[in-house]
Amino acid sequence: MKALIELIKGDITKIQADAIVNAANSSLLGGGGVDGAIHRAGGKQILDECIQIRNRQGKCKTGEAIVTSAGNLPATYVIHTVGPVWNGDEEKGSKLLANCYKNSLKLAEGLDIKKIAFPNISTGIYHFPKELAAKIAINEVQNFQTKKIEKIIFVCFDEENEAIYNELLKDKQ
Ligand code: ADP
């Protein structure tokens, strides 16, 4: 089965989904951008669980994903994945960004999640080119075979990403 894809412009912390994905950094201790917004809105519970996971298994590597509860957020879980910092190496960066989506979806599948929302991972502070990032994100999500996930939401915070996703998704749905 393939999940339905939806595009929303807005703030991912407001989304009611079984899981929202966080564009975390490898420390798992919070940061700026969407990471900061999720920790601020979700409260201390999320950070406490991130610290526990970090103490158990160390930092989260680029492209990998871990899960916590969602504290005060309307979602049930937060899946934290670490996107690549853009350094001009398109091949390596693309693979790592694809892994973020793949590993987050695999984790979600194991948690019986029906609805999951993604931010535009790596396209903020990590400076990944937005169009390339969107192509990778859409490709991974469309190729993901699932028995559980019914809906995958791309939450675009900025207008540039919203326009890119709109354009790329318009031919596909
Ligand atoms: P990264 O370090 O992976 O680049 P950022 O958080 O800086 O992470 O940016 C990733 C994307 O998240 C950017 O496109 C940014 O516009 C977006 N973003 C920032 N705040 C929010 C939010 N509250 N909800 C959804 N997306 C957000």
UniProtKB/TrEMBL annotation:
SUPFAM superfamilies: Macro domain-like. Transmembrane segments: none annotated. InterPro entries: Macro_dom, Macro_dom-like. It comes from the Bacteria. Pfam families: Macro. Residues 1-173 form the Macro domain. PANTHER family: GANGLIOSIDE INDUCED DIFFERENTIATION ASSOCIATED PROTEIN 2-RELATED (PTHR11106), MACRO DOMAIN-CONTAINING PROTEIN (PTHR11106:SF27). NCBIfam families: PRK00431.1-6. This is O-acetyl-ADP-ribose deacetylase.
